[in-house]
Structures are given as structure tokens and as C-alpha cells.
């Protein structure tokens, strides 16, 4: 390929073949994440969700496994699979 990153300055050598526009767009996404505190918000909403799941597990112990935060989905699927084979 003659027009590779070593011969054409506008070509970027990356896994995704990004261009300068892609890099600017990605930078803006990161800025928005920081400005709007989206990571912190996701953490807070996740904590609220976990608290709600823990409350439901206490209220209905026979119908739900103990919530485990990030591992809840995997544990729930595993518990469901185990109970289905009994």
C-alpha cells in the first residue's frame, strides 16, 4: 500500500484506522464525560440500583439470590441455571 502512514501524513496508524476528525470527536466525548460527571452519576445510580436489589432480596429471599454488585448478573444467571437443573 503506497499511501500508508509513513508516506501520507493525514493517515493515522491505529487499530481502528481513525482520522483526525475521529480523534477530535473522541476527545470531545471524554470532555463531555468529565464536564457532566457522567462516570460519577453512573456510580451513584449503580449504588441506588444495588440498594434496591438488596432490599428486594431481603423482602423476597426465596425468589432472588443475594445481590453482589458488579457480579450480580453473573451470579443470578448461574443461580438460575443451577435451580433449573434440580
Describe what you observe in this structure.
The protein is an all-alpha fold. It has a domain at 37-84. It is built from three helices and no strands. The termini are far apart.
Give short descriptive properties of this protein.
59% helix, elongated, mainly alpha, 86 residues, 3 helices
State the gist of this model.
The chain has 86 residues and is mainly α. The protein is built from 3 helices and no strands. It has a domain at 37-84.
Topology:
Elements: H1 20-35, H2 38-59, H3 72-84
Nearest-integer average pLDDT: 77
How much strand?
A: under 5%
String of helices and strands: HHH
Number of strands: 0
**Largest beta-sheet details:** none
Amino acid at each position: 500500500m503506497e499511501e500508508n502512514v509513513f508516506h501520507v501524513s493525514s493517515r493515522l496508524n491505529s487499530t481502528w484506522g481513525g482520522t483526525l476528525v475521529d480523534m477530535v470527536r473522541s476527545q470531545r466525548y471524554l470532555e463531555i464525560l468529565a464536564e457532566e460527571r457522567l462516570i460519577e452519576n453512573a456510580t451513584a445510580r449503580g449504588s441506588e440500583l444495588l440498594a434496591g436489589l438488596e432490599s428486594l432480596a431481603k423482602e423476597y429471599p426465596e425468589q432472588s439470590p443475594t445481590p453482589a454488585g458488579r457480579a450480580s448478573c453473573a451470579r443470578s444467571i448461574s443461580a438460575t441455571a443451577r435451580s433449573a437443573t434440580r
